[in-house]
Structure formats: structure tokens, C-alpha cells
Design goal:
heterodimer; A: alpha/beta; Pyruvate-ferredoxin Oxidoreductase, domain 3; 6-stranded mixed beta sheet; 8 helices; 6 strands; 21% strand; B: Rossmann fold; Rossmann fold; 21 helices; 20 strands
Chain lengths: 206, 599
């Protein structure tokens, strides 16, 4: 059955392609028949800071921002940024975490400590059982271009949304691919199609 | 046709549909993409001005000449442009003039969160506030119609959440811009604001704003959405969306024009409600105006005066105030994560600003900074910015501190674009009034922080035309500075030598550090990652002190010191060689062929 609304939180680091991913997501929502809004925080974050983007689908969407505690889906592009978003989520949320590590300077030259995989797993297991991990960079590297890791993640997300029945039947892979194709340079359409497909398959193999 | 547009893209589209012919702006988050997108339309004139005051004068000139014109800026840009904004209100124009202010509640990328609606009231100018992208587009056209109908500039106020949110927009047709150009008006009574003329204009603009208040009663952007009579909500801008989400049953009077207010409509609305509240970000602007009408209203006693709203904040504040039952509360997961390292924005790998700050840190001098990427040098380990207030402030602040007898030699640091913006008059002042201030101009040949806009030093205009490239060194020499040197950005030792000499001087000096931003396409072509020779590195940590995100701590510890060795992330390293220059053990080899710095 089709939920009346879905709130997506995308979290990552400047330069990871979160902006393109959220642009795709909001347009997929529109194409699937939802009202859709997206809000991004960038500017200073272009210089390696945290980036978060909110995407909302619904029958009617007013606020472009999601209230804390009301995010239904987390797409984390980086582990630390995923963990930072933990308490923004609704209990039982669908969570997809990319196993990328980008150490902030505060951990490299400062005395702050990057969280362990164990603490990441433990914290998210208390939030939800709907938890998946993916290595987007590894998959993108196998396709020959690290930059498509964001589309790998979208592919995986599309499969999870179908599997969890959080969106309607209108949300087909073809629809995602159409929206993605309209947003990448023509010469990269095939590469992005492969990345999307690889992302879809990465989770179904488990 | 329906398209997903950000608020900024929607404003640009609205400008094109409204037949705007001339637009001028200085880049500033969150407003920058408006002009960039407008410039992509055919048959328009768009330019980056040197600063916001110039941009507003340019737009005024175009509107005097009878063509629809617009100036665009972030909120603090209107401080720079205030003088021009005020006289434009006094004179009116021959064609529509709209000024866009993009305010930044929560200061995502600003030094303050001033609420520029006050400027509209101050200048007797109407203020429109869209609540989403569709309205952002539509209100541009409405603003021009209003401007021409009442012979007034109009302030179109956006906020970050409108600028940088995307929602569906139904596109419209373009109205044909004026093609016939009349002779420039010779009408001194209206356009020459000497006291004798200005005295006669002032009553006219006071009457004008009263007339617009009457017009506001039937202006469709002020929209009544009837609901329960127990709660009436006055709201504007993005706050309207939060009001709709949190109070689906309440009666709402959405004020698309937040100045001047429709007093009759407000009174009628207030009279039919049991309780009246205002939901508005930042200042109690509407709240105070309504209270001055003698209407009981609540606002800032419920919702904060600082920061940005969101649905949760509005809902929780409303529960506290008894407007919603406590059952409306949305619990947070409240899960323990342990302390998480923060991720502040930092200077990029290969940033040509880094060496100068590394040396300034070593010299321990007070550094009066300015607005740009280089402000990021305030954070450890560089920690070499000690003041930063607004565009162009650093040089004047350094001069003032020197005149006050500050015991240290002051260094002012400013970027190329900021120097063109408001740095030049301040440097003239340093020379004229003679102080021992060293100014460093970080010339990375681009306006960096806002995402690579051209400026008078790049030799290119916004519309892609080649133009005169204004050279800094001859300019600075012409201002009368005797000690001037241009040094390539990555030459750490030369920068150190020059600065050590300059901080002993008793006269003004200027060091120009020249190196294109490492993120520019032509600079990217020169990227070659370096590596650390692990057997030579002894974990001295010196290279960690330049704050380069590409230099990581290796898992390998040095046997003697038991400290982690350095490791370079090849996917981030640009090969700028600054770490190689400072490594005391030659553990980071230079690249085989040294690429010449500069251009």
C-alpha cells in the first residue's frame, strides 16, 4: 500500500554528490505523482563541511524542512554523517548507510575520535531493524568512475523502497532512470544506468 | 509546463517573464544563483557589480532610463547599498525597480541574521515575501507592476529556506520588454535630491506608502484562508508553510506583502478570532505593527526571535504556549551516539591561501580578516584570523588598532574580490593617514566562497565576454604604497621572508599572494598527488599543522616517537607541495617536474 507521505534525509560531506542525489529524488517524487519539495543546506559546506538535504513526498507537502523525529528514510553517504543524523529519524525508519569514511580535520589533526563501526551498528540497531549497508565507492570503482557512487546509492534506495512498499507502483526503475538521464551529461547516461543497476543488485545479492 | 525550481531559479525565471532588461548583483549566499540563472536567458543584460551599492545604482540608472531593472544581494549587502536604496525611494523611477534581499535566518553562511523587512519600513518601500518557488517567480512580476503603479522601488525579501528549497513551478510567458527607449529624463525636481527638491519629495513618499497600504487590502498576495475561529494566525514567507503543517484547522491570514500592512483586513480578521498569533522568523515585525494598531496579539512570547523555524520548533513552541495539546508532541529517538567529531568547513586541499596563514600563525601577529574562503583559517590548526566582521572591514580595523597603539604589528588579510568590493577605500585610508599596517591580498583570481564568480580581476564578465583585467600590483602602487610585492601562493619560504620584513616596517605595506583557486578547471588539470615516504617520516606532526584535509594520520607509528606517521590521501591531494616544502626530513618528495605557480 502507498503511504501518504515519505520524508527523506540525505546526509553526507560536501563534494559527495548529495545535491544531485536529492535533485533526482525530488524529481522522481514529482514524476511518481507526489507533491514534492526539497531543501538543501550548502554554501559553507562546499568546503568539506557536513551537507544535509531534506526531500519530502506526499499528497500535500507544506514545509520544505522535515521536523526532527519525523524522517522516514535516511540515505547516509558517509558513516559519521549517518550517525550524526540518528536522532533526527523516526523509530523504525528505513536506513541505508554508505560505508565511506571521510575523516574530518578535527579527527586528523585534532583530538576528536572517529566512531567505530561497532558503535554505528549498535546505535542504528536500536533505532530500526530496517537497516542496510552498502559500499558505494567500491561498486563505483568497479564501474571505473568513483563519481557515480551517489547513483549507486540511489539504485540501492530504489530497491529498498520497493521492497519495503513505502512508495507506490508508479515508482519503477524506468522512472528513476529517466529522471537520472535528464540530469547527467549525455555521454555519462550509460555509466549512470549501470551504476543505478549495480546499486539495485548490491542489496538483493545478500 | 511544470518544472522543479529552487527559489533562486524561480526568481530568475520570474525576472525573465517580467521583462527585466538589466540586472546587477554582487555574489552572496544565499542569493548568488539568482543572477547566474537569469544570465542564461536570451537577450538579457546581467553583470557582477563590484559591490551591492554599485549594483543598486546600476539598477536605478536602468530604471531611470525606462527599463525594468533589478539588483540582487544577500541581506548584509543591503547595508552596503542602503544609501542608494534610500534615495531611490525618494526619487522613484521611470520603469520598475525591484531589489532582492536574501536574508539568512540561522546564519548558514553569514555574520548576522538581520531582518531586512525593517529596511522596507525605514525607506517607505513595500516588501513582498514569497512562501515557495511558485510565488517567488510570480511575485517578481507582481513586484514590478506594483513598482510602476506607485512609482516606488519594491523590496522582494527571500530567506535561505526559500532560496535553497525546490518545489514545483508552473512556468508563464514573457511579457515583451520595453523596446522603445525614450531620452533620459531631465527632471531635476524628481531626480536631483538637493534639499530644495528633497523637501518636496518627502511628503509624496509618505503619502505613497499610505496609498499602498490601502491597495494592500485587496492585493491578492494577502490571502485569507478561513478555518476555526479559536485561533487566528498571521504569517508570511516560509513560516506560512510551517503554520499550515502544524495548524491545519486554524484560520490564516497570509501576508504576502509584509509592508505596508492592510489594517482594515487585519482588524476584521482579529475581531473574529478568540486568540491571534503571529508566526514569523526573526524580528517581531508584523507583531509590533499589529500591536501598534491596538490589536492584542502574541508572537515572540511563543516563538523564538533567533534562528530559523521548522515544523518541530513551531509545534513544540505551540504546545508550550497551550495552543496544542501535549499529545501533539513528537518524541525523538534519544539514542546515545557518544561524542561525534565535528566537521566544520575547512580550506580545501591545495588551497593557495594556506601558506600565508601557516606563516601568520608562526609569526603570532594579530590578523584582521575579511569575508571569503580565507575566513576559514580561523579554525585550528591554522588559527590565524582574529577579527572578521563584514566585507572590507579588516584593513580599517587593523589601521584603527594600530592608531590606538596596539603593541603588535597588525596584518589585514583580504581576498581579491573583497578588495575590489570595499577594500580599496580602506587601503587608501591606511596610506593617507599612514599606519604601519601590512595588508595581504590573497589573489586567487576568482570569487571563491560563493562558487567561482568572475570579478574585475578575472578578465571575464558574467556574460562570458573578455574584458580589461584589473591588475592589483599597479593599482596598489598607484595608491601610494611603497612596499609592494607579488609572490606566488605556494612559495612558503618567500612569503615568510617578505612578511618577516614587512612586520618590522613603520609604513604601510602590501603583499599580494597570487595563485588561482585550486578548484578552478585549469588548476585541476595540474593536480598530481604526492606521497609520504614512510621510512623517512618520523611522525613529527609538522605537516598536520597546515590543516590540509588530504594529510591523514597513518596507522603506522614511528618506533622512537610512538606518534602516527603522515599519510596522503591521493584522491584529495592536488600536489601543491606546501607540505613538501615544510617537511624537515624530506619525507614528502616534490613532484618530478615542478609546475610553475601563477599563470
Amino acid at each position: 500500500m502507498m503511504n501518504t507521505s515519505i520524508n527523506f534525509l540525505l546526509a553526507g560531506v560536501g563534494g559527495q554528490g548529495t545535491i544531485l542525489a536529492s535533485d533526482v529524488l525530488v524529481n522522481v517524487g514529482l514524476a511518481a505523482g507526489f507533491q514534492a519539495k526539497q531543501a538543501e543546506v550548502h554554501g559553507m559546506s562546499q568546503r568539506g563541511g557536513s551537507v544535509t538535504s531534506h526531500v519530502r513526498w506526499g499528497q500535500v507537502v507544506y514545509s520544505p524542512l522535515i521536523g526532527a523525529g519525523e524522517a522516514d528514510v535516511l540515505l547516509a553517504f558517509e558513516k559519521l554523517e549517518g550517525l550524526r543524523s540518528l536522532n533526527f529519524m523516526r523509530p523504525g525508519a528505513l536506513v541505508l548507510i554508505n560505508m565511506q569514511v571521510i575523516e574530518p580535520l578535527t579527527a586528523i589533526s585534532g583530538d576528536q575520535v572517529y566512531p567505530t563501526d561497532e558503535s554505528l551498528h549498535a546505535a542504528f540497531s536500536r533505532l530500526t531493524s530496517d537497516l542496510e549497508f552498502i559500499n558505494g565507492e567500491q561498486i563505483a570503482a568497479s564501474l571505473g568512475n568513483l563519481k557515480v557512487a551517489n547513483v549507486v546509492l540511489l539504485g540501492a534506495l530504489s530497491a529498498l523502497l520497493e521492497h519495503s512498499q513505502r512508495a507506490g507502483a508508479a515508482l519503477t526503475p524506468a522512472l528513476w532512470l529517466k529522471v537520472i538521464s535528464e540530469r547527467v551529461p549525455a555521454k555519462h547516461i550509460e555509466l549512470n544506468r549501470q551504476a543505478f543497476q549495480a546499486g539495485r543488485e548490491a542489496l538483493s545479492k545478500k | 509546463m511544470i518544472k522543479m525550481l529552487s527559489g533562486n531559479e524561480a526568481v530568475a525565471r520570474g525576472m525573465w517573464e517580467a521583462g527585466v532588461v538589466v540586472a546587477s548583483a554582487y555574489p552572496g549566499t544565499p542569493s548568488t544563483e539568482i543572477l547566474e540563472n537569469y544570465a542564461l536567458f536570451p537577450n538579457v543584460y546581467a553583470e557582477w557589480a563590484t559591490n551591492e551599492k554599485v549594483a543598486v545604482d546600476v539598477a536605478i540608472g536602468a530604471a531611470y532610463a525606462g527599463r525594468r531593472a533589478m539588483a540582487i544581494m544577500k541581506h548584509v549587502g543591503l547595508n552596503v547599498a542602503a544609501d542608494s536604496f534610500m534615495y531611490a525611494s525618494m526619487t522613484g523611477m521611470e520603469a520598475g525597480l525591484v531589489i532582492v534581499t536574501a536574508d539568512d535566518p540561522a546564519m548558514h553562511s553569514s555574520q548576522n541574521e538581520q531582518d531586512n523587512r525593517t529596511f522596507a519600513k525605514f525607506a517607505r518601500v513595500p516588501c513582498l515575501e514569497p512562501s515557495d518557488s511558485q510565488e517567488a517567480k510570480d511575485m517578481v512580476r507582481l513586484a514590478f507592476d506594483l513598482s510602476e503603479r506607485f512609482d516606488t522601488p519594491v523590496l522582494l525579501r527571500l530567506t535561505t529556506r526559500i532560496c535553497h528549497s525546490t518545489s514545483a513551478v508552473e512556468l508563464g510567458e514573457r511579457i515583451a520588454p520595453v523596446t522603445e527607449i525614450k531620452p533620459f529624463p531631465r527632471n531635476p525636481a524628481k531626480y536631483v535630491m538637493v534639499p530644495g527638491n528633497a523637501i518636496k519629495r518627502h511628503p509624496l513618499i509618505e503619502q505613497r506608502i499610505r496609498d499602498i497600504a490601502v491597495f494592500a487590502e485587496t492585493f491578492p498576495v494577502n490571502r485569507l484562508e478561513p478555518g476555526r475561529h479559536s485561533l487566528g494566525i498571521l504569517t508570511c514567507g516560509v513560516s506560512y508553510q510551517y503554520a499550515k503543517e502544524v495548524f491545519p484547522d486554524a484560520s490564516i491570514l497570509r501576508l504576502g506583502m509584509s509592508w505596508p500592512l492592510p489594517e482594515k483586513s487585519l482588524r476584521a480578521f482579529a475581531q473574529s478570532m478568540d486568540r491571534l498569533i503571529v508566526i514569523e522568523e526573526l524580528d517581531p515585525f508584523i507583531e509590533e505593527a499589529v500591536r501598534l494598531m491596538g490589536i492584542p496579539v502574541e508572537g515572540k512570547s511563543i516563538f523564538p526571535i533567533t534562528g530559523e523555524f521548522d515544523p518541530r520548533l513551531v509545534r513544540e513552541s505551540a504546545i508550550q504556549a497551550g495552543l496544542l495539546p501535549s499529545s501533539a508532541h513528537v518524541p525523538l529517538p534519544g539514542l546515545e551516539t557518544g561524542p561525534l567529531p565535528s566537521r566544520p568547513p575547512v580550506l580545501c586541499p591545495g588551497c593557495p591561501h594556506r601558506p600565508a596563514f601557516y606563516i601568520l600563525n608562526k609569526l603570532k601577529v594579530p590578523v584582521n580578516g575579511d569575508i571569503g574562503c580565507y575566513t576559514l583559517a580561523l579554525t585550528p590548526p591554522l588559527s590565524a584570523i582574529h577579527t572578521c566582521g563584514c566585507m572590507g572591514a579588516g584593513i580599517g580595523v587593523a589601521h584603527g588598532a594600530a592608531k590606538a597603539g596596539s603593541p603588535d604589528h597588525h596584518v589585514a588579510v583580504i581576498g581579491d574580490s573583497t578588495f575590489f568590493h570595499t577594500g580599496i577605500p580602506a587601503l587608501v585610508n591606511v596610506v593617507y593617514n599612514n599606519s604601519p599596517v601590512t595588508t595581504i591580498i590573497l589573489d586567487n583570481r576568482i570569487t571563491g566562497m560563493t562558487g567561482h564568480q568572475d570579478n574585475p580581476g578575472t578578465g571575464r564578465t558574467l556574460l562570458g565576454q573578455e574584458t580589461v583585467r584589473i591588475e592589483l600590483e599597479p593599482l596598489v602602487r598607484a595608491l601610494g604604497v611603497k612596499h609592494v610585492q607579488s609572490v606566488p601562493g605556494y612559495e612558503v619560504k618567500t612569503i615568510e621572508k617578505v612578511l618577516k620584513e614587512y612586520v618590522k616596517l613603520k609604513e604601510p605595506a602590501v603583499l599580494i599572494v597570487v595563485e588561482p583557486c585550486a578548484l578552478l578547471p585549469e588548476a585541476r588539470k595540474r593536480w598530481v598527488p604526492l606521497e609520504v615516504l614512510a621510512d623517512k617520516c618520523n611522525g613529527c606532526t609538522l605537516c598536520f599543522r597546515i590543516g590540509c584535509p588530504a594529510i591523514l594520520k597513518s596507522d603506522e607509528l614511528d618506533e622512537k616517537t610512538q606518534r602516527p606517521k603522515a599519510l596522503i590521501d591521493a584522491s584529495m591531494c592536488t600536489g601543491c607541495e606546501v607540505c613538501a616544502e615544510i617537511c624537515p626530513r624530506d619525507a614528502i618528495p616534490f613532484r618530478p617536474v615542478r609546475v610553475e605557480a601563477g599563470e
